[in-house]
Amino acid sequence: MRKLYPKSKVETTGFMARYYDTLLDIATFGKYLPFIKQVISIANIRADDRILDMGAGTGRNACLFANYLTGKGELMGVDISKDMIARFEKRCADFPNVKIINRRIDQTLPYKNDFSKVFISFVLHGFPQNARKVIIENAFQTLKQNGEFLILDYNEFSLPDIPLYLRIAFKFMECPYAFDFIEKDWKKILADVGFSNFEEHFFFRQFVRLLKAVKPVGPAP
Asked: CA-CA distance, 79 to 88, in Å (whole number)?
C-alpha cells in the first residue's frame, strides 16, 4: 500500500499492522482495552444501530460494538490496509453482522443516509486538515437524520502549556499532523458542516475526548 500521506502514522502496514494490538497494549501499559470498553459503554449503542467504523483497523473496537447489537444491528468497517483487514476479518469472524471494506475514508464513500452512528477512533488527527474535512463531510453524508458522529481523539490543548514529560511523549509518539489538530476548534468545524447538539466526555486528565455530534433533521446549511 502506497502511503498518500508519508508523514502520517495512521496508514499502517506490515509489522505494525500485524502486531498493532500488542504494540498498543504495551504502549498504554494495558490500559487501552478497559478504556475503549468504557468509551463504548457510554456511546449509547442501540441493539438495531447501523454503525460505520472509519479506520476500523484490526476489528478490536468493532467486536466490542458488536456485543451490543442484535441481528437487526450492523457494523461496517472501512480501512485501507489489507493487513489490518485480514486481522479484522479473523477477529470478527463470529459476528455475521460485522463486515469491512477496503476503501479510503478521505475519499467519497458509497453510502448516503445509511448509518445511525459513525465512529472514528484516534484516526482523524493523523490526516492533514483538507483530508479531515473530507472525512467529516463523508460522516455527515453517510449518517441518517439524528445520526451521531462519535470522534474519539485528542482533546484541544496548547502543547507548550502541558507538563514537559507529556510534551516530550507527544512529540515522540505523534506525526506532524497531530500538532495542529489539538489547536483547532472542532465543534465549530463540525458545526460548519451541519452537525449540532454536541456532547463531550473526557479521559486521561482531559487530554482525550469523546466528542459526539448529531446530524439534525432537515437540509445541511
From this structure: 10
Opening angle at CA 41, ends 115 and 119, nearest 5 = 30
Instruction: Match 456532547 to its residue by C-alpha cell.
Output: 199
Phi/psi region, residue 55 (left: phi>0; alpha: psi -120 to 50; beta: rest), is left
Task: Using DSSP bridges, classify how beta strands 98-102 and 115-121 pair: parallel, antiparallel or unpaired.
Answer: unpaired
- Rounded Cα distance, 85 and 146, in Å: 30
Burial of 48-57, coded b for 16+ CB within 10 Å and e otherwise, reads ebbbbbbbbb
User: Which amino acid type is present at position 95?
Assistant: F
Phi, psi of 117 (to 5 degrees): -145, 140
Q: How far is CA 161 from the centre of its chain?
A: 26
> For the purposes of burial, counting CB atoms within 10 Å of the CB of 71, is it exposed (0-12), middle (13-18) or buried (19 or more)?
exposed
pLDDT of residue 220: 52
Q: How far is CA 117 from CA 5, 9, 28, in A?
A: 27, 25, 27
How many CB atoms are closer than 10 A to CB 165? 8
Query: 3-class SS at 206?
Result: coil
Q: For cell 489489507, what's the residue?
A: 82
pLDDT confidence band for 161 (50 / 70 / 90): confident
Place of cell 510534551: 167
